[in-house]
Amino acid sequence: MIVEQGRYLILQGKGISYILRIHEQGYLLHVYYGRKLRENDFPYFPSAPRSFYTFAPDQVFLEGESQEYPAFGYNDLKEGAVEVLADGKIAALSLKYKSHEISDGKPAIDGLPSSKANGVACQTLAVTLSDDAYGVEVRLLYTVFEDSDVIARHAEIRNSGKGALRLTRAFSCCLDATGMRGSETDMISLRGAWAKERNLERHSLFQGVSEIGNRTGESGHYLNPFAALCGRATTSDYGDALGAMLVYSGNHRFRVDVDAYDNIRLACGIHDGGFAWDLAPGETFRTPECLLCFSWQGLDGMSQAYHDFLRAHILPQRFRSSFRPVLINSWESMYFDFDEEKILEVARQAKQSGIELFVLDDGWFGKRNDDTTSLGDWYPNPEKLPSGVAGLAEKINALGLKFGIWVEPEMANPVSELLKAHPDFPIACKAHPPVLGRNQQVLDLTDPRVVEFIGKFLDELLSCGKISYIKWDMNRSMAEVTEPGFVHRYYLGLYKILGDITEKYPDVLFEGCSGGGGRFDAGMLCYHPQIWTSDDSDAIERLRIQEGTALCYPLSAMGAHVTACPNHQVWRTTPFSTRANVASFGTFGYELNVARLSEEEKAEVKAQIAAYRKIEPLIREGDFAVLHSAFARGNFTAWQVTSKDKKRAVVLCVRTLASANAAGERVRLRGLNPDALYTEARSGRNYYGDELMYRGFFPSVPSTDFASVLTEFVEESEETNR
Ligand code: GLA
């Protein structure tokens, strides 16, 4: 999988090649990342001759070369991946090749979440570069997996000298996109805000910098730690796309530079604003992992490659192939207003409807009857839960349901016993009064006492053995950060807590959350196999949120609930069936009071769960495709998910607004076997795969507002064909 050929180091993935070259003067150059090339004996791409003046000491003008991990300021005046202060002065780094090694498997990154081999053959290349004059050593690690087109990269920077060093930038990855030209390339990012997370943003690159990032102390509602470059003509099923995703939940930055010669440099990693890291002699800093992905089959190809990779190498494997329980969450149906009797009434009805897990959301602890108090006081409110958490869990279990509970471990309200006893637990700049967000403060997870407190209360909560699920929330951004590098230290603390608790309770399903989807990233997915996608549960708004999220994150990672109407975020009324159909393209659940549903609706819930159970294996493992994008102008969205063996395809079509005299919507499927005969479950009609893909079918979505159709195409067995 990794081949050494003269000065070339060649990483061969499932369908991609990633090629590096060690220059005669010792620089590590990037040659290629793209569709798989054969290994051969001649130089892949001789460097383009340069006729202009160079100031490079070795007659190598690095600005004119593609580099793997450049530094600004010596012989390259483009933005670099690493910046170091030595004795308070900017180090003019000239990093040169020292050694490399190739090993089987995938090493973990100390203190940080990262991808795992999980039984799949993979190899890791580690190249060491060094600048002996400054005492800086950089180890670049690349893992290539047999089953994937994703390359996992990160860097380790070591103080190999005698003096103190300070890192002021340490990106995970820098990629000179050799196959792309700036003037022909678009950048795609996932932008948003609370209740409108991960909407697609696409713009043309230009000479200069296009950048996204977040400094709010979490991967963020605003800009997700993901970016893609694609050809101007790339669509969902055509063209090249190159993605970069961080396995990280803190501050991040993605920078795309286009230089005067139309060359593209993509660099990403921890946001260097407010970042600094001191390295004493012998100390090493490890960057988060970056997952690079290349597709020549359009954006769907990139999405599918990321989905496959995250499922196989990021998500906790114990939840990969098991059914996720269909849950009912108390938040939108009861908010803070509940007691044991009310909970049990909903749980009884839920059980009768086929729901499997009851989740008690916010409001069960301390004196919490609204959001002004008690975060940090993690003991049950005796008025609401007279038999405690364990007692309630037991009663829920006795009804035949699993029990889950909400926590927000990283926070405390100033009005809490915790902060009365430990006023120094939260982050505070001390120069000004504390900044509150949703009436709460962020605890300082760099403080080992805080880490211990959180670990202990979670352990006490879970030790009753009756809790099957935890919803881990985080409902405000960080402010008052005064120490450079603090946010990264915070995440080292958080990852330690998450690692310890999920290891101790491996069967408990954790769902991440941050004011909806404010921390939806591959770092969190290493611990939480699912994340609450957004607090906006309106089925129509969810079309964009879920489609944007699915650009790189698998459907099974997206918590998606059927909620009551009028919807609590936009006051829209949509058909019950559409709410269920859209939620079916995620990890399915309910967030409404089933006890208040009509008998007819209760029967519908049963049918919805049964339908979901049928398609769930595809949602968990299948190939997702966007047939009509929710972001395109128009009124119509269509998605498809297909089993790997191409024998089953589920198609969802949603009309947003009805319009008079509208043309019929023709939907063309993708990725089927052209010669196979498929039966559409709804109509019983037969179609060959080629007809469905090249000619399409008419889904006959009712011509009313917000109507939808969820249908399935199943390949006839050969028996039936004859
Ligand atoms: C956040 C979450 C919601 C809910 C509330 C509880 O907003 O996103 O789902 O848990 O907190 O306060």
TrEMBL record:
What is the top EC class of this enzyme, as a single word?
Answer: hydrolase
Q: What is its EC number?
A: 3.2.1.22
Q: Enumerate the active-site residues.
A: 473, 535
Q: Which residues bind substrate?
A: 194, 361-362, 438, 471-475, 513, 535
Cite the InterPro entries for this sequence. Aldolase_TIM (IPR013785), Alpga-gal_N_sf (IPR038417), Alpha-glycosidase_related (IPR050985), GH (IPR017853), Glyco_hydro_27/36_CS (IPR000111), Glyco_hydro_36 (IPR002252), Glyco_hydro_36_C (IPR031705), Glyco_hydro_36_N (IPR031704)
A Pfam family of the record is: Glyco_hydro_36N
- Annotated Glycosyl hydrolase family 36 N-terminal domain ranges read 26-280
Keyword Hydrolase set for record? yes
CDD domains given in the database record = GH36
Q: Name one GO biological process term.
A: carbohydrate catabolic process
What is a single molecular function from GO for this protein? Answer: alpha-galactosidase activity
Annotated keywords: Glycosidase, Hydrolase
Catalysed reaction equations from the record? Hydrolysis of terminal, non-reducing alpha-D-galactose residues in alpha-D-galactosides, including galactose oligosaccharides, galactomannans and galactolipids
- Can you tell me which family this protein belongs to? Belongs to the glycosyl hydrolase.
What name does UniProt use for this protein? Alpha-galactosidase
